């Protein structure tokens, strides 16, 4: 290794090690649910599936993980185009090449033959000499994901496919690159985190290459000159045995790859270990209600596909996956159907990119992905999940167009882990065929100020306390009520020392709108800000300390954001707007990890030891007038709200509980 390559290696190791260290729910018709222990789990507020609570379990491994580098659920990048079938497949005794997840699409054969790699939105980069001699320490953009995908070898996919179709020259070059990796990264490659994290992906590439050799050369037995390929597969299997990532999607992916080696090389002990690990993992990865342990809607979709692939792999090679995987996947499919917005996109909660729901025959996903055109309508329109999710909507297109329904999500539950965000109490909302309140999305896996912000409370629709040192904490769902025309939820937590936070949420149907009551209390003066993140291109006009209006030029709708005086009078600067701010970061949206758009954030502000902020988020047609009046009766507070010709009355109880009475 040249001195230049040694220096480059040192810089790469330092970068990756740094990444590792940093990562380490009144009136007739209402259904009331007490939280948590007194909850009647047979009520419609509970999701289909077992009533047993299921708390997410962290990874059991204590080994380091390169942030996010294991399996990024990006459309066309790391998810299959359609879910793996759940119906039985023919037993062939073989392990099918799972493909290359779209990584190969940026590296056509001509680029591959010149040892040039490309990933994401960065320019292609020549990583080798053109003869298959690769500098495996290449890291030109200082991005952990770029480096990991280089070591995954998935970028060789086009060449492997060409070789399988008889292109001997390309196949030889692919084999030269793979053998160069094997020689330059001898077992164990544990010290190189990018190579470590790519092991399961690279294992599948080796298996696909082995199949290409047999098919392309029209032989049934691997030629002796490629014996090193089988040795490399055994090394990869041994690495995954010794360095199991635990009961997360990463560990599941590893177990599938390990099973693939056992199936391909006729090693029953490897198959058995993989099946044992999968059997253990499924009950942690997906709970009886269908929630995953990833704290991410995007990763939930990924897990649905992943476990479908596991089922297919086991069946094809003659192993019985048993009933639990199928049962948990079915529950997850119903969960995902509720987690799909009226726009057809999944709720962008946790590490999640803008992604449409994928149809899955025999599940409610088929109905939501087709906007109600076919499939079975989900049995519920709102549900509470013990893992910390509330999903709801005004309907499934029964009385209005499917896309015109309003949908929402609320987060609570255990503190942040895996692919979760500090989004407890956060609310997302879509109505009138568009996003109203958004989650700013997934900024990617680079450990920088953008990722720190996108995961923080400040990036979500919550009451924040920017003057206090907040932390990831558990948030309790104290009560929930689901009725035909409204839902209410009460939440409580303590996001910082000597600071308590409560939020009551009321979601209405006809008129469609959201009311929240935030209360903060602290031992000393604090800054309290209730944040409302709006979609990009919305222009916000502050009309008074109590009213702001957001609209997009040319739109037929607008959003009224009302700060209704209750117990405290909003100050002169009670409403402020931030958009596209870099220091501190605020006012952005990520449709995917490669792109960032400025997006307005409306802040309702208070200072003091206590804060009481009553908000109304009211989407309306551009020609409709929105107005309200308030009144009191004893200890009760009422808001009479008018949207166009529709009127409703909200009652605020002394304990903060919100109820629709008209």
From TrEMBL:
GO terms for cellular component: periplasmic space. Residues 124-300 form the Heparin-sulfate lyase N-terminal domain. The chain crosses the membrane at residues 12-35. One of its GO terms (molecular function) is lyase activity. Residues 43-67 have a biased composition (Low complexity). Its main location: periplasm. InterPro entries: Chondroitin_lyas, Hepar_II_III_C, Hepar_II_III_N. Keywords: Lyase, Membrane, Periplasm, Signal, Transmembrane, Transmembrane helix. Signal peptide: none annotated. The keyword Membrane applies. PANTHER family: HEPARIN-SULFATE LYASE. Residues 393-560 form the Heparinase II/III-like C-terminal domain. This is Heparinase II/III-like protein. It comes from Kribbella solani. It is found in: Periplasm. Residues 40-90 are annotated as: Disordered. It comes from the Bacteria. Coiled coil: none annotated.
